[in-house]
Design goal:
Length: 527
């Protein structure tokens, strides 16, 4: 099934480029995180997004209240039932985000070389000469010559809806700036970003804590995207906060790296976090343009070697208003996959974009084509070398399962797991075939009632490249007799056959625990 995987070092036949892309149940191994908002919140549209390949829904609390997001989430639940596609939920915190407030919502035109004052006085009306902001300490944080960007939603610093300003002087609490490009700001709220400027605000704000402890707890969120993570301590404090909120002690924390400060402490943050989001919008402004690709490659490599999911943002901005990405964007998506990204995060493209379903579908097709030329052989050797010897027991089993699957050209790897750790370790070695993670629920009690674990673990694998979860019958424990394992295996094989990833005479590699021993076995299917 996967014998046609090319290596980038091999010459690629032009004929293969001209062949049409083949549709499959798993559009790509690389996952897609979609931000749900005004243009993508109906049951019909969310169903379209799920069918197109979205596996994680992101709820951005930078705008909209809890009631608004709850309505969207209820529609997501309905769409999941209709499509029978599992989807995880990610809550994105606001963090120390600076905002310009435009209460009248009138468009504001700013002309090149004009002077504009940023003031913490939120009672004043926003005009082309005066912009009220939600932070009193900006005048202490900046100095003459510093760069400030203002734009609606997300900004690149070059589009006509974003403005680049230079600080010319500080007057008391006000900051006087010179406009560097003409732009029109429209809407009620704009983001303000100071390039390489330390903002003395907590990473997890009181507003964030309120949203997490109400909306987050109510909906048992799978992922917390921690905006503006600057230090490992930010992640530790967020985890301590979640640990006191019942089920949210299982919620995974993804550190969002969006400033040079976060980049400076990247290694420590990676050690503490469950995953990393490379927020290239803000970082693209903080870093010189020629350094952006280096940051991406270095950060993705570190995440891959640590076996932690890495998510890349800001890939097809132009699809917010267009049906096709630019050539540079299409190449950028492919390079993110080849660099080792687990998932692609779509923000404005699905939040307010005109073509959310088409965007997800297009990105999925680019990812699938890129995966065909991913140099798995080189990647595998590099990972084994990085891990070193002696390997841990689990790491050894995981790498052996992947090596065996590639050698026998297996169509799929099936992994029995209860915590999800074994399946994630297999995915770390980037097999060229899908990994079906059979999550075996475990019975647990809080001394008042019984419940099953497993749903969290299954949904949390929806952000890991190549991992496709399936919840097993809770009557079959993960470490069990060969008889019960065979019955769960049959269900997993039937699941794979139903979706067309397993065919007669295919070979399948199975990774499971039998008693105290971990076993990797190869089975060949009959008709």
């Amino acid at each position: 099934m996967h014998s046609n995987h090319l290596l980038l070092e091999e010459p690629i036949r032009m004929a293969s480029i001209l062949e049409p892309s083949k549709a499959s149940f798993f559009p790509a191994m690389t996952k897609i995180v979609g931000t749900l908002g005004p243009r993508s919140r109906s049951v019909e549209l969310i169903s379209g997004c799920l069918k197109a390949g979205m596996s994680v829904a992101r709820f951005d609390f930078s705008w909209g209240d809890s009631e608004y997001h709850q309505e969207t989430l209820e529609n997501l639940k309905a769409a999941v039932k209709i499509t029978k596609k599992l989807c995880a939920v990610m809550l994105d915190t606001v963090g120390p985000e600076l905002q310009v407030l435009n209460k009248t919502e009138k468009s504001i035109s700013l002309k090149e070389d004009a002077v504009v004052v940023l003031t913490p006085n939120q009672e004043l009306e926003a005009t082309s000469e005066l912009l009220p902001i939600n932070f009193t300490g900006l005048s202490q944080a900046v100095k003459k010559g510093d760069t400030i960007f203002v734009g609606q939603y997300l900004f690149t610093g070059s589009e006509s809806t974003s403005v680049w300003m230079e600080v010319s002087e500080v007057k008391g609490d006000d900051v006087v700036c010179t406009v560097k490009n003409s732009a029109t700001l429209s809407g009620s709220l704009f983001t303000l970003h100071g390039s390489q400027i330390h903002i003395n605000l907590p990473t997890l704000t009181d507003k964030d804590k309120e949203v997490i402890s109400s909306w987050g707890v109510q909906n048992k969120i799978d992922f917390l995207s921690l905006s503006y993570t600057r230090h490992a301590e930010d992640v530790r404090q967020a985890r301590e906060f979640l640990s006191k909120l019942g089920d949210l002690s299982q919620t995974q924390i993804f550190a969002k790296i969006e400033t040079v400060e976060g980049l400076t402490h990247f290694d420590e943050i990676l050690h503490e976090a469950d995953g990393i989001i490379l927020s290239r919008g803000n970082l693209g402004i903080d870093l010189p343009p020629e350094k952006v690709f280096l940051f991406q490659k270095a950060a993705l490599y570190k995440c891959n070697m640590a076996g932690k999911p890495a998510v890349v943002t800001r890939v097809v901005d132009s699809m917010t208003n267009n049906l096709r990405p630019t050539r540079a964007e299409a190449t950028d998506v492919a390079n993110a996959v080849l660099d080792g990204s687990d998932a692609i995060l779509l923000g404005a493209e699905t939040l307010r974009g005109q073509y959310p379903v088409e965007t997800i579908s297009t990105v999925g097709r680019i990812c699938a084509e890129s995966e065909k030329v991913f140099n798995q052989d080189l990647y595998f050797k590099k990972t084994v070398k990085f891990v070193g010897e002696p390997m841990t027991h689990l790491e050894s089993i995981a790498s052996s399962a992947v090596r065996a699957a590639i050698k026998v050209k297996a169509s799929v790897i099936i992994c029995f797991t209860s915590s999800g750790r074994a399946a994630r370790l297999i995915a770390k070695y980037r097999p060229t075939m899908p990994v079906i993670s059979v999550v075996i629920p475990r019975l647990k009690t809080n001394q008042l009632r019984w419940s099953f674990s497993g749903a969290f673990e299954a949904r949390q694998s929806l952000i890991v490249r190549g991992l496709f979860p399936m919840l097993a019958d809770p009557r079959h424990p993960a470490e069990s007799t060969s008889a019960t394992n065979e019955s769960v295996l049959k269900v997993a094989l039937d699941h794979g056959k139903a979706y067309g990833v397993i065919k007669p005479h295919d070979r399948v590699v199975v990774c499971q625990k039998v008693g105290d021993a971990s076993v990797v076995k190869i089975i060949e299917l009959e008709d």
